[in-house]
Structure formats: C-alpha cells, structure tokens
Description:
It comes from Sporothrix eucalyptigena. Its main location: nucleus. This is Centromere protein I. There is one protein chain. Among the domains are: 255-389, no CATH class; 639-759, no CATH class. Helix content is 59%, strand content 1%. The chain has helices at residues 5-19, 32-45, 49-60, 69-77, 87-95, 106-118, 125-133, 135-139, 148-158, 166-179, 183-195, 217-235, 267-270, 294-299, 317-325, 329-348, 353-370, 376-386, 394-401, 409-424, 429-451, 456-488, 497-517, 522-525, 535-542, 547-569, 576-579, 595-615, 635-646, 668-686, 706-714, 722-735, 739-748, 750-759; strands spanning 286-287, 304-305. Helix 18 packs parallel to helix 20 (409-424).
Amino acid sequence: MDMEPDEEITTLVGDLAQAARVPAKRRLFSVKSTVERLTSLAYEHGLRPDDLRTIVADILTAPGIFLDQASLGSLVRNLYPSSAVAEDVVLAVIGCLGQGQLKPPLPVQALLLRWLVLVYHVLSAPALAVLSRSYAVLFNLLDTAGTRPQLCHVLVLITRRKHVRPFRIQAILGLSRQIGHDPSLVGLLRVFKNYYPEVIVGDATRGRASPFKHPDPIWRTHLDDIRLKRQQNRLEGRNGGANGIDLLDDAPYNGFRVRQDTSGRGRASKSAIPAVHTIHAQEESVTLEEIDSAAGFVQHLEIIELPNQLVAVLADPLLQKLLLLRPSDEAFARVDRWLEACVTSSASGDGSKDELMDLLEVVHDYIASTQMFPPIFHNFFGEILAHWNGKDKKTLILESLAFVPLTNFSETYKATYELLEARLLNNEASSQLDLLSFYTLVLRQQAIAMMATDNSDIAARAAGSIQALVQHVNGLVLALIQNSVVYSTSPTAASGGVSTLALLAVLDFYEEVTAILALRRDNVLACVQELIPPPTAVYTLHFHQSAAIVSRLYSILANYKRGLEAAMSRRPGRSAAAALAQIDRSQPLALPLTDHERARVNLFNGYLMDVCNCLWRSRAFSSTDTNALGCRVDGAVVGRLSGYVQGLLDRDLPLAAAFSLSHSPTLCLQAISYLRHLEDDAMEAAGADDSTVQPLERRHAGPVTQAALLRLADSGGLRVTWQAYRSGLLVHLEKQGLGGIASLMYNTMKNLMNARASSG
C-alpha cells in the first residue's frame, strides 16, 4: 500500500538523518536517490514542522555530518515549510554560522541565510523575536566574506532603531574602508542612516549599494501555493487537524510597524511618497520607527515624535493610526500642500499624468484605511478625471470617489459625479453596471456616516441627499434594465449573463436603501415614499425566473413596508391603531398624506397587492382590487395571454392562477418538492412497527390546488388542508434560503399575520 506524501517524507527524513552520520564509504546504500526523492516530495507538498526541524537541526546544521555539499545545497533549496517556521529552526540556523571544523561549509551557511530571507514572511512571532535578540551575533559575523551579502540582507530586514548604535556604525565604516566599499555594507549603512541621518555623513553611503531585492520571487510564489493548497486540504478535512496550517499574511508587518520598502519597488517609491523617517531624534525620544507592536504603540502614543515627511501618511498605516488618534491640523495642512503641488504641476504640464495615476494607488489605500476624503482630494481627482479614459484603474477611482462627502447631492453631482459619468458611460450595459455599483457604494458610505453622527442638521442634509441620489439612480436602473434585456435577447449574445448581473446589481442598490430605512432616522422616514423603486424595476424582477432574485425583491418590499409603517407612526396626529394598520386589500397605509405622498404610497400598495394577487390569491393581473395595478399590463395583453393559456393542454389552468406558489415557473419546483417531502414523511410514519397510520394509496401528480388536495384525501392520498399546505410551504421556502417570500407574505396578508401571532 502506498504511503501518504507526508508519511513518506517523514520516513525519508529519518533514513537520511541516520545515513548522514555515517561516512560515505561505510554506508550500505547511496543517499543520492533518497535526497532526490525527498527534495521532490518537499517541492510538491512542502514540509511539516517536525520534518523541517529534523532536516535543519539534525542534518544541515548538526556537527559530524558526512553528506556532500551538493546534497546539502539541494536540501536547502527545497526547504518549503507548510506552516509558520518555529523559533528553534531559526535558532539552529543562527547557531551554525561562523567558521570552524564543526560548522557547515560557508556556501551552505550562505544558502541558509538566503533561506531565512525567502521564508521571512512566514516566520512565527517567536522566530522573529529570536532574530531580533540575535542581532549582535549576526552583526559580529559581517567580517566573513562568504556569507556577508546574505547576512546583510537578513540584518536589513530585522534592523530597528534600537539596533542602530554608534559603535555599530563605526564598525561598519571601518570594515567598509578595509574591504573597499562592499555594496552589501553600503546598503546596510544606508538603512542605518534612515534612523540617524545626522550621524552618518560624508562619502560613506555613496557609490554602488546592494538593492536587497527578494532573492527568488518564483520560489516564494511556489511556497505560497503549497501553503494555500495545505490550507484548502485542511478546510476540506482531508489532511487532519494536526497537519493543517494557518495561512499567514505578511507576518513581519502587522499594521503596528513602520512599512520599510528596502527594495525601492513598492507603491510608495513608485509614486514618490517618502518613507517614514524621523530626523534629529534623541536617545530619550520615541519615534515611529521604534514601534513594533500594538502594545508599544499604545504605551508611547502621547510622546511619539512625528516624522519629518508627513506626506508619508498616505502610504504608511502606522502613521495613519497616529494622526487619527492624535490629529494635527498642521500635519494635514502639510499633506494638503504636497498634494496640491503635485496636482498643480500636472495641470501646468510640468508633471506627467502617469505620476498622478501612480499616486492614485496610494491615495486609494489612504482613503480606504482612514475612511476619510480630505477636501484637497477633490482637486486631485478632478485632475485625474479630466484626462481619464474610463478604463485605467477604474476600480481604484470608483472606490475612492465613493467616500466623497454627500452633504448636497446637486453640488456633489456637478462637482464630481457628472464628470465621472461622462468618462465612465459608453454604449455598453457594462458601463452602466459599473456606475450602479459605484452609487451602491456611495449609499453604503452614507449609511455608515448616518450611523456615526447624532447631529440633526447633518442627518437632515444627508436625508435630502439620499433622496436625490435614489431618484437619480432610479433613471439609471431603468436604462440598465432595458439595455440588459436587449443584450440578453440579442442573437449575438452568448448568454443572458449580463442581464442577471444587472438585476443583481439593482437588488444590491435597493437593499442598501432599505438598510438606511432600518436606521429609523426621522429625516429619512419623512421622505420614505420618495425612495420606493420604479414600477418597471419591480415588475421585471417579480417575473424573473430565478427564485433567489424574486426572494430578494420580496424581502426588499417587506423592508420598505416596515419603513413606511414607521414613517406613518411618527406623523403628528397619527393614532396608534392607524399607525399599526397593515397593508392588505382592505386597509391601505395612506393616511394622513399629501396628494403627492398619497400617490406614491398607493403605488407601493399596488406593488404589494399585485404580488399577493399573483402568489397567494390566484388573481394575477387583477386591477379590480383596491390599489391593485394589474402588474401594469394592459387589459388587451391580459386577454391575449388568457387565450393562449386556455389553448394549452391543461385547459383547467386559468391565467390568474398561473403565477401562484404552486404553478409559478419560478417556484413550482420548490412547491412540489415540499409536497413530496410531506408524502415521504407520511409513508415513513405508516411504515413504523407500532404505527396505526394507514399507508398512502396514491401520490399527488401536481401542481397543487385546493380542489386537488380535497380529491387527493378522498382517494387515499395525503390529508392536508390548503391553508396548512401553503403555510408549511412558506416555512419550507425559508429553510431553502428563500425567506423573502415568507417575509413579504407574513407582513402583508392579514390572515397569515393573525395565524403567526396566535401560534407564537
């Protein structure tokens, strides 16, 4: 029987550890094939912590090992850890460094140091602490030429302000003069200068320096793939709890440490954003560069010195946290002036438009992190939109502009949204879909802003802006639905996918509207009747053949109804009984209202009545009931449809019942599945040994009607009342994730509300 890869790796590691202590001439077998098989499995599956520890501590770094240098090098190059690297593994590597008969060869030491750089992003927190505490040991090994480049790279990664001391600066300067300006030493010295620029002067840091790039990006990508695969296997339960891993992000960077970009290829460098540096720091002062944990940040929050280049706040999350907790008008003014200079330079033609687009990435991250949109950004994005082609970095632009304060919709539209629409919209439905998604983000930010403020004036302005925004987007929704339907029915279209995406985006938008209504803010409730969706959108979604889409629509309508009820209950002179009145065929929720408000609420009542007529009352397209709109279908069309239905094989099915829960093309499968479930339960109960229940003599062929259930019971089939069947079907739909249908029915149909109240 073949072993699992992890088990085979463990066996091979044990065999190799034993064979490595025996001289080659005394071995009974050659270890070459063992090394080849082990490295192949490690490359494909990664190494578990115990196997990694054994290879590093008992083979690569242990004294008295008789493996050849080629085999050792092959092992190091295939050390792919499947989980975070433990501190004892790092300690074993540090302990093997240096010169001596019991030490590994210098090329192997260099490979191990290079390996530390490769796996630095997956080192555990204790392993990072071991590296930091071993700084003096590593620094004292810089005189070894064979490992100096790799050692300098490790030191660059772990250097913090506490490690930079005058005697170390002098040691590097002396060693650099002695060996002739080694690029690695110059690069390390430049990192030291970042912390004490006033100490390191002269020509010491001039000349060619090591860029300290990642040694092997392909190796790291493969390592991440191995860890991701392990994580997926663990989640699927195929790898056992003990062997699973916790997939780590960039472990050395935890949000409470200054972001150091030593490669010069990060976003900050690309957009000319300076890194965080605090010049003229004293021994007793505390700088951001010294902070490496949340505890240290909180402990020194009030005494941390601001860095010299405050514009670094755009790219450094730790500085962002500091300025949010210790706001400084002067600091933000300096950032504004810097951005204004960039925009002015670009507008005058002195600067490149590409530079602004590069800066956009940093600005986007700043806005997303701080949830703020400073006024200076209006000029910045105005300059970008003036030359934008509607495609480049579209996501960054839309996500950033969603945070624009919406205190007055008309002003914001003229200043920002109008130009954005002109650049974004084209003749494709996908551009309208992007714009609708953008306005959904805007509405979501408005909801968050309203939750965060108790200022009545701000809330009032926000409510007016929300009303204007929704009314503006209603037109976009209608255009998007029309264009998407045309696209999905076009003979050149591969599928109707765009249409479905459009309708889902419409639902997303109106769900955000109902989320704002749920806040129960008086200013919003006062204009709730102006926020209801247009009829075309409601009825297009109502007749869609996706059960998930119609369920979400009905949930939205139920939430709108709750908002209208809350608004009516807060009107002056509104009695408690009238406030609690429910919308059904006898009690529309419409008084006391102005004529315009009455028309809007009657329109919404029509939505509810039409949906209930279709699903529950088998009176589809009826316009005789109070407020019923007949789904806005012309009477002549209804007559033609009735004739068509009567011409089908099932002549007993009238058009009015064709969209009920049992017959609807969207919900008929769930309806008959529920009946089959009831019949199966009845058959199982009848088959029990002590059961007195008679087995069913026949099953219902479907679809279910009230008359069919009576005939079924009389002929030996399932006995269930029409009301019990439909109530149970609503519960079944809720269990299937289609709770919006039951939510609307229980909030609209009076008999269902009374039945639920009595059962509860």
